[in-house]
Amino acid sequence: MVDRPTLDAYDTYAADYAQLWLDEGPPDDMYALLEQHFAPGPTADVGCGAGRDTAWLESRGFDVRGYDASAALLDEARRRHPGLRFEQAALPALSGVPSGAFRNVLCETVVMHLDHVEAAAAAARLVELLAPGGTLYMSWRVAGSGSLRDERGRLYTALDGARMRAALGGGVQVIDEHEVVSASSGKRVHRLIVRRADGAA
Fold first, then answer.
1. Where do the domains of the chain lie, and which CATH numbers do they carry?
2. Quick one: a GO biological-process term for this protein (predicted)?
3. Using CB atoms within 10 A as the burial measure, which of 14, 57, 154, 167 is most buried?
4. What are phi and psi of 48, to 5 degrees?
């Protein structure tokens, strides 16, 4: 289930986070990867926050829907992007989000807000959302050797790349994996892009 202190922080300070993400500037390095690896079709932005990346995807012609656990962040998203579609759903279960329905799934720096077990379950669930041949971009903040919480209580779990890859299951192919300092946030992130097999059930 969602980490309660993390969700409380996003609900309490939603307007602050929305403005912070806007002030950071666009993550052009991530957008370049999405343009390279995503194909036209239904697209899910999981952990969409205030909708910045959802709006970018829509501007590039993707049929996109944003999902987030935080009702307050979704209010910010709907206010800032009134023409886009946003729904409440929380990792790892993503209840109500259809399996096998998406050509692309984006999950940018979200799964580190779950503990190790829940993050692995979230990774497997994200793959379930993909249609055969679909592509998942998943990333997380690199938290060093141990998990920690920030001053507002948000959890940052130190996730292991090998364990997260294993959690995705055998029906995917790794397209790209690397660690980099984000051009937007200035934080170090681990990026993993995989493609579901065409014949995956």
1. 4-196 (3.40.50.150)
2. methylation
3. 57
4. -75, -15
Buried b (16+ CB within 10 A) or exposed e, 9-37: bbeebbeebbeebeeeeebeebbebbeeb
Q: DSSP string of 124-190? A: HHHHHHEEEEEEEEEEEE--TTS-EE-TT--EE----HHHHHHHT-TTEEEEEEEEEE-TTT--EEE
pLDDT per residue as tens digits for the range 73-95: 999 999 999 999 999 999 999 99
The tens digit of pLDDT for each residue in 23-54 reads 998 999 999 999 999 999 999 999 999 999 99
User: Residue 114 gets which letter from DSSP?
Assistant: S
The contacts found for 85-88 with CB under 8 angstroms, 24 or more apart, are 86/48, 86/51, 86/54
Count of C-beta atoms within a 10 Å radius of residue 149: 13
Residue with tokens 């959802």: 54
- Residues, the chain: 201
Strands (E) located in 69-129: 85-88, 102-107
pLDDT the model gives residue 201: 46
Residue 25: left if φ>0, alpha if ψ -120 to 50, beta else—which one?
Answer: left
